[in-house]
Design goal:
Chain A: It holds the Pfam family IBH1_N. The complex is a heterodimer of chains A (162) and B (380). By secondary structure, chain A is an all-alpha fold. Chain A has one domain. Helix content of chain A is 80%, strand content 0%. The longest helix of chain A has 31 residues. With 380 residues, chain B is an all-alpha fold. The chains are: A mainly alpha (162), B mainly alpha (380). At the A-B interface, helix 2, helix 3, helix 6 and helix 7 of A face helix 9, helix 10, helix 11 and helix 15 of B.
Chain lengths: 162, 380
Amino acid sequence: MKMDHHIGLTSTHHGSIKTRFTHRFLYALKNLNKNKKPISYHKVKIAAYSSMASAVGSTRTWSRVMLRRIRRRQLRRASSVIFRRTIRRAKCIKNNGAKHQKNKVVSRNDEEDEGISKLRELVPGGEIMEFSSLLDESAHYIKCLNMQVQIMRNIADLLSSV
Amino acid sequence: METEDSGKRSFELRNGDSSESLFKNHNSVDPFNGSGWDQLISMNQSSNFGDGVSSSELLNSHYPIMFEHQPINVSSHMVPKIPSFGSGSFSEMITSSFGLNESALMPPPLPSQIAVDEPVDSSPNAKRKRKVSGSHSPFNPSKSNEGGMQKVSSMEASDCSKEQDGNEKIEHQSKRGGKQVNTSQSGEQPKDGYIHVRAKRGQATNSHSLAERVRRERISERMRLLQELVPGCNKITGKAMMLDEIINYVQSLQNQVEFLSMKLATVNPELNIDIERLISSKDILLSRGTSSAGLSIPPGLSTSHLGPGIPQGTFMGGAPNLPQPYHPLPQMVWDGEFQSLLQMGFDSHSSINNLGPNGICARKSLNCCDYIYLFLSIIL
């Protein structure tokens, strides 16, 4: 995506996660708008997530995993060869995650188990995390999601009000 | 030393060769026998563990923990406190018996080792490693009981919640002191990334249970954090319910993102121009911001305007230079907004502001102002 280029450009810009996210997301929107066609909401969503993850940087597991997923998705579209490879890799990761989970969850009651496994699915990269770090990451993820929602709402309000 | 040999044996049974040296060190704790507290505890221990448990074993199990695992950070604090440790014999013991063995204690911890730390003292962010105290489990049938020795170890190990009056208190103090003692001892080479866990009275001191306790505490701490984050989660008790609530919240947020992106996708094409303008202004900002050195600075302005971290005063000074139509808001509003912006660490605004006075063409500065407004309305 062209967006990546801009993200690279703006990576020198240090600010809060909020400002970085706003920059990147606006850039992404602009790039999506370049070819005056109607955009699919999916693309906007991807743009929002990837700009959030790149704004957070690689310090968090969830952002790394999210970026990796998005990149893999792009690659998948780009070439079928890489597609196959990544599929294989994805399978490996999945298997590892499953194993890990089995080991981790030994003696908890069913409700908790269910909740935890759900949470693992929701937080990117949660499948391979230890429980305590899962909680940590999900706390950060929730914060970022909050911020994202707030800013996206502001942008939407602004654009629709103009 | 009989105890040492037996300890070794038991150790070998459990873990393997690697931590033998450690084990020996633990055995050196024996001097404790001399201390006065022992009686009650020994009673206690015998009741709890039965005949098979030997005091030496207990010592082995607990003391290594106390001594070896000291977070580096704490060491400075710890040293002065050493004298506070209850029995004089303890400190003596440390100096005498442990001094020799330090080298053995110090070698890098085996991965399997459990670090025991008191959760209160350990910083949450610190790396946590676990040190193996597992090799020294209090329950070894092969050991013979030595009456005097148990005190601290027995206290820790004993699951009973029996109240022991004076002795217990003393013991607790001594335990607190024990930490410091550790530091003093480990002061030779402070260790990184260990958690220092102290078992309270009546808690199991088994390495596994200690590690598990640390883990549980960490989890509950993070749960509390999450609880604060998720609205409406405060009243809920029970992990499962809380998890449910958290999951619902995350899902709702993700749904919101989806909804908003849908909205943006529908809104966008019509407002293409607006976004274009918005972002082109930002492009200008960014390009100028990065190549700000190339800008010609009007004589009236100080170079500080170009720097990313502009003090507010200079910022205010620059603002009036903007063409009148472009800051319709009264000056006070500008001040407030810019202050908040600066506080937020939004550096690109400085470059924006520079652009205005620098006399880039009027349209661009208009864009800048628009951009500022847009960005403010988006972010604030």
